[in-house]
Amino acid sequence: MEDGKTRHAIMHGLNPFVPGAGRQPKDLAGREHELEIMDRIIARTKAGYSNQGLVYSGLRGVGKTVLLLKMRDMVTEGGLLAIRLEATQDPKHDYAAIFEGVSKAILKERDKSLRESLLAAVKHVNEVSVHIGVLQASFGPSRDEEAPTSESLVLEMMVEELCTTLKKHNSGLFLFIDEFQEMPKELMGTIIGLQHTMGQDDLPFYVIAAGLPNLPGVLTKSRSYAERLFEYRQIGSLPENETRDCYIKTISRVSRFEDDALDRLVTLSQGYPYFIQAYGSAAFEASDSSPIPLSAVDKGEPVAREVLDRGLYESRWQRARPSEREYMRAMASIGKELCSSSEIAERLKRPVSEVARIRKGLIESGLAYAPERGYLSFSVPGMGDFIRRAAPLPEQIYDRKE
User: Fold this and answer.
1) Where in the chain is the domain with CATH 1.10.10.10?
2) Strand partners, 340
3) Boundaries of each Orc1-like AAA ATPase domain copy (predicted)?
4) What is the pTM of this model?
Protein backbone atom coordinates (compact mmCIF):
# COMPACT_ATOMS: atom_id res chain seq x y z
CA MET A 1 0.00 0.00 0.00
CA GLU A 2 1.39 3.41 -0.97
CA ASP A 3 2.16 5.80 1.89
CA GLY A 4 1.57 9.56 1.74
CA LYS A 5 5.19 10.27 0.83
CA THR A 6 5.03 7.93 -2.17
CA ARG A 7 1.73 9.43 -3.39
CA HIS A 8 3.24 12.89 -2.99
CA ALA A 9 6.25 11.90 -5.14
CA ILE A 10 4.03 10.33 -7.82
CA MET A 11 1.83 13.42 -7.99
CA HIS A 12 4.80 15.74 -8.34
CA GLY A 13 6.21 13.53 -11.05
CA LEU A 14 3.09 14.40 -13.05
CA ASN A 15 3.62 18.17 -12.81
CA PRO A 16 2.42 19.41 -16.24
CA PHE A 17 3.89 22.91 -15.94
CA VAL A 18 7.26 23.56 -17.57
CA PRO A 19 8.81 26.87 -16.47
CA GLY A 20 11.92 27.73 -18.46
CA ALA A 21 12.97 29.64 -21.54
CA GLY A 22 11.56 28.06 -24.69
CA ARG A 23 10.24 24.90 -23.04
CA GLN A 24 7.08 23.78 -24.78
CA PRO A 25 3.94 23.25 -22.67
CA LYS A 26 1.53 20.50 -23.68
CA ASP A 27 -1.20 23.05 -24.43
CA LEU A 28 -0.39 26.29 -26.24
CA ALA A 29 -3.53 28.05 -25.04
CA GLY A 30 -4.30 31.48 -26.42
CA ARG A 31 -2.21 31.14 -29.57
CA GLU A 32 -4.69 29.18 -31.70
CA HIS A 33 -5.02 31.95 -34.29
CA GLU A 34 -1.26 32.08 -34.82
CA LEU A 35 -1.19 28.32 -35.38
CA GLU A 36 -4.04 28.66 -37.87
CA ILE A 37 -1.94 31.15 -39.82
CA MET A 38 0.91 28.65 -39.99
CA ASP A 39 -1.50 25.91 -41.06
CA ARG A 40 -2.60 28.18 -43.91
CA ILE A 41 0.96 28.87 -45.05
CA ILE A 42 1.79 25.15 -45.01
CA ALA A 43 -1.35 24.33 -47.02
CA ARG A 44 -0.61 27.08 -49.56
CA THR A 45 2.95 25.86 -49.96
CA LYS A 46 1.84 22.29 -50.64
CA ALA A 47 -0.65 23.64 -53.18
CA GLY A 48 2.09 25.55 -54.99
CA TYR A 49 1.16 29.05 -53.79
CA SER A 50 3.55 31.55 -52.21
CA ASN A 51 3.00 33.59 -49.06
CA GLN A 52 4.46 36.42 -46.99
CA GLY A 53 6.81 35.66 -44.13
CA LEU A 54 5.80 36.22 -40.50
CA VAL A 55 7.37 38.52 -37.90
CA TYR A 56 6.31 38.31 -34.25
CA SER A 57 7.32 40.99 -31.76
CA GLY A 58 6.74 41.31 -28.04
CA LEU A 59 8.27 41.50 -24.59
CA ARG A 60 10.29 38.73 -22.97
CA GLY A 61 8.22 36.00 -21.38
CA VAL A 62 5.19 36.20 -23.70
CA GLY A 63 5.96 32.88 -25.42
CA LYS A 64 7.52 33.92 -28.73
CA THR A 65 10.18 31.19 -28.63
CA VAL A 66 7.64 28.52 -27.72
CA LEU A 67 5.43 29.67 -30.59
CA LEU A 68 8.32 29.44 -33.07
CA LEU A 69 9.19 25.93 -31.86
CA LYS A 70 5.59 24.80 -32.24
CA MET A 71 5.41 26.25 -35.74
CA ARG A 72 8.67 24.57 -36.69
CA ASP A 73 7.25 21.24 -35.52
CA MET A 74 4.14 21.85 -37.63
CA VAL A 75 6.31 22.46 -40.69
CA THR A 76 8.42 19.34 -40.23
CA GLU A 77 5.36 17.22 -39.46
CA GLY A 78 3.89 18.53 -42.71
CA GLY A 79 6.90 17.13 -44.59
CA LEU A 80 8.49 20.53 -45.35
CA LEU A 81 12.03 21.73 -44.61
CA ALA A 82 12.61 23.83 -41.48
CA ILE A 83 15.73 25.52 -40.15
CA ARG A 84 15.85 27.24 -36.77
CA LEU A 85 18.43 29.49 -35.18
CA GLU A 86 18.70 32.04 -32.41
CA ALA A 87 20.41 35.09 -33.87
CA THR A 88 23.54 36.43 -32.23
CA GLN A 89 25.75 39.40 -32.94
CA ASP A 90 28.37 37.09 -34.45
CA PRO A 91 28.00 36.77 -38.27
CA LYS A 92 30.23 33.68 -38.49
CA HIS A 93 28.14 31.90 -35.88
CA ASP A 94 24.85 32.77 -37.55
CA TYR A 95 25.97 31.81 -41.06
CA ALA A 96 27.37 28.52 -39.74
CA ALA A 97 24.07 27.83 -37.91
CA ILE A 98 22.08 28.36 -41.12
CA PHE A 99 24.34 26.18 -43.27
CA GLU A 100 24.39 23.45 -40.62
CA GLY A 101 20.61 23.70 -40.32
CA VAL A 102 20.24 23.26 -44.09
CA SER A 103 22.38 20.12 -44.00
CA LYS A 104 20.44 18.58 -41.12
CA ALA A 105 17.07 19.41 -42.67
CA ILE A 106 18.04 17.77 -45.96
CA LEU A 107 19.42 14.65 -44.29
CA LYS A 108 16.15 14.28 -42.33
CA GLU A 109 14.07 14.43 -45.53
CA ARG A 110 12.27 11.08 -45.84
CA ASP A 111 11.49 11.30 -49.55
CA LYS A 112 14.60 9.69 -51.02
CA SER A 113 14.15 11.25 -54.45
CA LEU A 114 13.74 14.73 -53.00
CA ARG A 115 16.64 14.24 -50.57
CA GLU A 116 18.96 13.25 -53.42
CA SER A 117 17.83 16.21 -55.52
CA LEU A 118 18.46 18.61 -52.62
CA LEU A 119 21.90 17.12 -51.95
CA ALA A 120 22.72 17.54 -55.65
CA ALA A 121 21.65 21.19 -55.46
CA VAL A 122 23.90 21.81 -52.44
CA LYS A 123 26.78 20.03 -54.16
CA HIS A 124 26.36 22.29 -57.19
CA VAL A 125 26.41 25.41 -54.99
CA ASN A 126 29.54 24.16 -53.21
CA GLU A 127 31.28 23.60 -56.52
CA VAL A 128 30.40 27.11 -57.69
CA SER A 129 31.34 28.70 -54.36
CA VAL A 130 35.06 28.11 -54.94
CA HIS A 131 34.82 30.85 -57.57
CA ILE A 132 32.99 33.23 -55.22
CA GLY A 133 36.05 35.44 -54.88
CA VAL A 134 35.88 36.20 -58.61
CA LEU A 135 32.11 36.64 -58.53
CA GLN A 136 32.22 38.92 -55.52
CA ALA A 137 34.41 41.43 -57.31
CA SER A 138 31.60 42.06 -59.80
CA PHE A 139 29.15 42.97 -57.04
CA GLY A 140 29.28 46.53 -55.79
CA PRO A 141 27.34 47.64 -52.70
CA SER A 142 24.46 50.02 -53.23
CA ARG A 143 24.59 53.36 -51.51
CA ASP A 144 22.92 52.25 -48.26
CA GLU A 145 23.83 48.56 -48.18
CA GLU A 146 27.00 46.78 -47.15
CA ALA A 147 29.06 44.77 -49.62
CA PRO A 148 28.01 41.12 -49.93
CA THR A 149 30.29 38.60 -48.29
CA SER A 150 31.24 35.20 -49.68
CA GLU A 151 28.87 33.63 -47.18
CA SER A 152 25.96 35.81 -48.28
CA LEU A 153 26.45 34.94 -51.95
CA VAL A 154 26.64 31.23 -51.12
CA LEU A 155 23.48 31.52 -49.00
CA GLU A 156 21.61 33.33 -51.77
CA MET A 157 22.57 30.70 -54.36
CA MET A 158 21.79 27.84 -52.00
CA VAL A 159 18.32 29.12 -51.07
CA GLU A 160 17.44 29.69 -54.73
CA GLU A 161 18.65 26.23 -55.79
CA LEU A 162 16.89 24.50 -52.89
CA CYS A 163 13.61 26.35 -53.32
CA THR A 164 13.57 25.71 -57.07
CA THR A 165 13.90 22.00 -56.32
CA LEU A 166 11.41 22.08 -53.44
CA LYS A 167 8.73 23.77 -55.53
CA LYS A 168 8.80 20.88 -58.01
CA HIS A 169 7.95 18.59 -55.07
CA ASN A 170 5.24 20.87 -53.60
CA SER A 171 7.49 21.60 -50.62
CA GLY A 172 9.21 24.66 -49.20
CA LEU A 173 12.01 26.01 -47.02
CA PHE A 174 11.16 27.74 -43.71
CA LEU A 175 13.78 29.72 -41.81
CA PHE A 176 12.77 30.28 -38.17
CA ILE A 177 14.79 33.03 -36.48
CA ASP A 178 14.53 33.89 -32.80
CA GLU A 179 15.95 37.18 -31.44
CA PHE A 180 16.06 38.48 -35.03
CA GLN A 181 16.91 42.00 -33.86
CA GLU A 182 20.28 40.65 -32.68
CA MET A 183 21.35 39.48 -36.13
CA PRO A 184 24.34 41.24 -37.76
CA LYS A 185 23.24 43.93 -40.21
CA GLU A 186 24.74 42.35 -43.34
CA LEU A 187 23.18 38.92 -42.75
CA MET A 188 19.84 40.46 -41.78
CA GLY A 189 19.85 42.40 -45.04
CA THR A 190 20.69 39.25 -46.99
CA ILE A 191 17.80 37.32 -45.43
CA ILE A 192 15.33 40.14 -46.00
CA GLY A 193 16.55 40.36 -49.60
CA LEU A 194 16.04 36.61 -50.02
CA GLN A 195 12.45 36.85 -48.79
CA HIS A 196 11.96 39.61 -51.36
CA THR A 197 13.55 37.91 -54.39
CA MET A 198 12.14 34.46 -53.65
CA GLY A 199 8.69 36.01 -53.41
CA GLN A 200 9.15 37.79 -56.72
CA ASP A 201 10.21 34.49 -58.32
CA ASP A 202 7.28 32.68 -56.66
CA LEU A 203 9.63 30.29 -54.86
CA PRO A 204 8.66 28.73 -51.49
CA PHE A 205 11.00 30.45 -49.01
CA TYR A 206 9.60 31.83 -45.77
CA VAL A 207 11.22 33.73 -42.91
CA ILE A 208 9.31 33.19 -39.67
CA ALA A 209 10.94 35.43 -37.07
CA ALA A 210 10.46 36.72 -33.56
CA GLY A 211 12.04 39.43 -31.46
CA LEU A 212 11.57 42.40 -29.17
CA PRO A 213 8.94 45.11 -29.79
CA ASN A 214 11.47 47.17 -31.77
CA LEU A 215 11.99 44.38 -34.34
CA PRO A 216 9.69 45.78 -37.09
CA GLY A 217 11.59 49.07 -36.98
CA VAL A 218 14.96 47.30 -37.09
CA LEU A 219 13.91 45.36 -40.20
CA THR A 220 12.62 48.39 -42.11
CA LYS A 221 15.75 50.30 -41.17
CA SER A 222 17.82 47.46 -42.65
CA ARG A 223 15.77 47.32 -45.86
CA SER A 224 12.97 49.82 -46.42
CA TYR A 225 10.89 47.33 -48.41
CA ALA A 226 10.81 44.93 -45.44
CA GLU A 227 7.50 46.45 -44.34
CA ARG A 228 5.84 44.85 -47.38
CA LEU A 229 7.45 41.42 -47.12
CA PHE A 230 6.07 40.18 -43.82
CA GLU A 231 2.86 39.91 -41.92
CA TYR A 232 3.72 41.69 -38.68
CA ARG A 233 2.02 40.44 -35.54
CA GLN A 234 2.38 41.54 -31.94
CA ILE A 235 2.45 38.90 -29.21
CA GLY A 236 1.39 40.11 -25.78
CA SER A 237 0.09 38.78 -22.51
CA LEU A 238 -3.01 36.61 -22.61
CA PRO A 239 -6.37 38.11 -21.61
CA GLU A 240 -7.88 36.91 -18.35
CA ASN A 241 -10.21 34.32 -19.90
CA GLU A 242 -7.38 32.74 -21.92
CA THR A 243 -5.05 32.78 -18.90
CA ARG A 244 -7.69 30.93 -16.90
CA ASP A 245 -8.22 28.50 -19.78
CA CYS A 246 -4.48 27.87 -19.99
CA TYR A 247 -4.32 26.83 -16.33
CA ILE A 248 -7.40 24.63 -16.67
CA LYS A 249 -6.21 22.86 -19.82
CA THR A 250 -2.65 22.39 -18.58
CA ILE A 251 -3.65 20.66 -15.36
CA SER A 252 -6.79 18.87 -16.59
CA ARG A 253 -5.09 15.51 -17.21
CA VAL A 254 -3.88 15.12 -13.63
CA SER A 255 -5.83 17.42 -11.31
CA ARG A 256 -7.60 20.78 -11.08
CA PHE A 257 -7.37 24.03 -9.10
CA GLU A 258 -10.00 25.10 -6.60
CA ASP A 259 -11.80 28.23 -7.76
CA ASP A 260 -10.10 30.65 -5.35
CA ALA A 261 -6.71 29.12 -6.15
CA LEU A 262 -7.31 29.60 -9.85
CA ASP A 263 -8.39 33.21 -9.30
CA ARG A 264 -5.17 33.92 -7.41
CA LEU A 265 -3.01 32.30 -10.10
CA VAL A 266 -4.66 34.38 -12.82
CA THR A 267 -3.91 37.54 -10.83
CA LEU A 268 -0.30 36.57 -10.12
CA SER A 269 0.62 35.57 -13.68
CA GLN A 270 -0.78 38.71 -15.36
CA GLY A 271 -1.30 36.70 -18.54
CA TYR A 272 2.40 36.17 -19.26
CA PRO A 273 3.00 32.55 -20.36
CA TYR A 274 6.38 32.36 -18.58
CA PHE A 275 4.70 33.51 -15.35
CA ILE A 276 1.82 31.05 -15.85
CA GLN A 277 4.25 28.14 -16.00
CA ALA A 278 6.28 29.33 -12.99
CA TYR A 279 3.34 30.00 -10.65
CA GLY A 280 1.43 26.93 -11.84
CA SER A 281 4.44 24.66 -11.29
CA ALA A 282 5.15 26.06 -7.82
CA ALA A 283 1.53 25.65 -6.71
CA PHE A 284 1.47 22.07 -8.02
CA GLU A 285 4.68 21.22 -6.15
CA ALA A 286 3.39 22.82 -2.95
CA SER A 287 0.14 20.84 -2.95
CA ASP A 288 -0.47 17.60 -1.07
CA SER A 289 -3.99 17.10 -2.33
CA SER A 290 -6.26 17.34 -5.34
CA PRO A 291 -7.95 19.64 -6.20
CA ILE A 292 -5.12 22.10 -5.50
CA PRO A 293 -6.14 24.65 -2.84
CA LEU A 294 -5.37 28.35 -2.42
CA SER A 295 -2.95 27.51 0.41
CA ALA A 296 -0.71 25.70 -2.09
CA VAL A 297 -0.70 28.75 -4.37
CA ASP A 298 0.26 30.96 -1.41
CA LYS A 299 2.99 28.54 -0.35
CA GLY A 300 4.37 28.32 -3.88
CA GLU A 301 4.29 32.05 -4.59
CA PRO A 302 7.76 32.90 -3.18
CA VAL A 303 9.20 29.84 -4.92
CA ALA A 304 7.80 30.98 -8.27
CA ARG A 305 9.05 34.51 -7.68
CA GLU A 306 12.54 33.16 -7.07
CA VAL A 307 12.34 31.17 -10.32
CA LEU A 308 11.35 34.33 -12.18
CA ASP A 309 14.08 36.35 -10.50
CA ARG A 310 16.73 33.85 -11.57
CA GLY A 311 15.31 33.14 -15.00
CA LEU A 312 14.28 36.61 -16.12
CA TYR A 313 15.78 39.35 -14.00
CA GLU A 314 19.07 38.53 -12.24
CA SER A 315 20.89 37.41 -15.39
CA ARG A 316 19.82 40.56 -17.21
CA TRP A 317 20.92 42.75 -14.33
CA GLN A 318 24.34 41.11 -14.53
CA ARG A 319 24.47 41.79 -18.27
CA ALA A 320 24.20 45.54 -17.63
CA ARG A 321 27.16 47.82 -17.12
CA PRO A 322 27.29 49.74 -13.81
CA SER A 323 26.16 52.93 -15.59
CA GLU A 324 23.25 51.02 -17.18
CA ARG A 325 22.24 49.65 -13.79
CA GLU A 326 22.13 53.19 -12.45
CA TYR A 327 19.94 54.17 -15.40
CA MET A 328 17.61 51.20 -14.84
CA ARG A 329 17.31 52.07 -11.14
CA ALA A 330 16.16 55.52 -12.18
CA MET A 331 13.62 53.99 -14.58
CA ALA A 332 12.32 51.67 -11.86
CA SER A 333 12.04 54.49 -9.33
CA ILE A 334 9.63 56.35 -11.61
CA GLY A 335 7.22 53.44 -11.22
CA LYS A 336 5.71 53.57 -14.71
CA GLU A 337 5.89 51.08 -17.56
CA LEU A 338 6.72 53.87 -20.01
CA CYS A 339 9.30 56.47 -18.97
CA SER A 340 10.38 59.56 -20.85
CA SER A 341 14.09 60.16 -21.36
CA SER A 342 13.74 63.52 -19.66
CA GLU A 343 12.14 61.96 -16.56
CA ILE A 344 14.97 59.44 -16.25
CA ALA A 345 17.66 62.08 -16.74
CA GLU A 346 15.98 64.22 -14.08
CA ARG A 347 16.12 61.33 -11.60
CA LEU A 348 19.81 60.93 -12.42
CA LYS A 349 20.32 64.69 -12.03
CA ARG A 350 22.11 64.79 -15.37
CA PRO A 351 21.30 66.33 -18.77
CA VAL A 352 19.48 64.10 -21.28
CA SER A 353 22.36 64.42 -23.74
CA GLU A 354 24.84 63.22 -21.15
CA VAL A 355 23.04 59.90 -20.57
CA ALA A 356 21.94 59.31 -24.19
CA ARG A 357 24.75 56.81 -24.77
CA ILE A 358 23.67 54.75 -21.74
CA ARG A 359 20.11 54.70 -23.06
CA LYS A 360 21.37 53.53 -26.45
CA GLY A 361 23.40 50.76 -24.80
CA LEU A 362 20.35 49.43 -22.96
CA ILE A 363 18.40 49.29 -26.22
CA GLU A 364 21.22 47.63 -28.17
CA SER A 365 21.67 44.97 -25.48
CA GLY A 366 17.93 44.18 -25.47
CA LEU A 367 17.41 45.26 -21.85
CA ALA A 368 15.01 48.01 -22.90
CA TYR A 369 13.25 49.26 -26.01
CA ALA A 370 11.83 52.54 -27.29
CA PRO A 371 8.06 52.19 -27.94
CA GLU A 372 8.07 55.73 -29.29
CA ARG A 373 10.52 58.57 -29.72
CA GLY A 374 11.81 59.95 -26.44
CA TYR A 375 10.42 57.12 -24.30
CA LEU A 376 11.83 53.90 -22.89
CA SER A 377 10.43 50.71 -21.38
CA PHE A 378 11.93 47.52 -19.99
CA SER A 379 11.92 44.59 -22.41
CA VAL A 380 11.06 42.19 -19.57
CA PRO A 381 7.68 42.60 -17.83
CA GLY A 382 8.16 43.15 -14.10
CA MET A 383 11.81 44.26 -14.34
CA GLY A 384 11.05 47.55 -12.61
CA ASP A 385 9.24 45.73 -9.80
CA PHE A 386 12.23 43.38 -9.40
CA ILE A 387 14.65 46.29 -9.08
CA ARG A 388 12.43 48.04 -6.51
CA ARG A 389 11.72 44.82 -4.60
CA ALA A 390 15.06 43.02 -4.68
CA ALA A 391 17.30 46.12 -4.77
CA PRO A 392 20.08 44.21 -6.59
CA LEU A 393 23.55 45.48 -5.80
CA PRO A 394 25.18 47.73 -8.41
CA GLU A 395 28.54 46.04 -7.66
CA GLN A 396 27.41 42.62 -8.97
CA ILE A 397 29.62 41.02 -11.57
CA TYR A 398 29.25 42.41 -15.09
CA ASP A 399 29.16 39.41 -17.43
CA ARG A 400 28.06 40.74 -20.80
CA LYS A 401 30.38 39.80 -23.64
CA GLU A 402 31.64 42.74 -25.65
Assistant:
1) 321-390
2) 375
3) 28-187
4) 0.84
